[in-house]
Amino acid sequence: MNQSDYEIRLLHQLTGFLAELTTKAQALHSEHPFMDWLLKTSATCEERPIDYNLVTQQVIALFTHYTDMAPLFPRDVLYFLGGDCLHFMPDEEIAAYQALDEMRFEALAQRKTFDWEHAKESLKKLQ
């Protein structure tokens, strides 16, 4: 898995999350503040190249203003965004993701394929 494959996989996770929220939020009035957040975040994710700083700001807004939605957010994406988004992850989870990154970079250096989900499951079994 190269870097672009990694980013594409994470973008799919993020857009899947947004699509799920869009379905769940259909009952909300179109002027509800959450709908504004959802539309703005979805539009940001559709732009190319993606402005990850803007995505990060939107994720922080989700965790700050819509805390009931935060547990649904993909943890892989949260770690990928890094920076202030890491404040929403416990130290143990960050350490596990760092171990996954090391495994991924080692596989890239050796020109081997890397299965993120399989490696993640392997780490869970070791903990």
Span from first to last CA?
Answer: 25 Å
The portion of residues forming beta strands comes to: under 5%
The topology string of helices and strands comes to HHHHHH
**DSSP strand tally:** 0
- Biggest sheet descriptor: none
Number of DSSP helices?
Answer: 6
What is the arithmetic mean of pLDDT?
A: 92
Structural class computed from helices and strand pairing: mainly alpha
**Radius of gyration from CA coordinates:** 16 Å
Give the low-pLDDT segments.
none
Helix content: 55-70%
Shape: elongated
Topology:
Layout: H1 3-24, H2 33-46, H3 52-65, H4 75-81, H5 91-109, H6 116-126
Compact summary:
The protein has a domain at 3-89. Helix content is 69%, strand content 0%. It contains six helices and no strands.
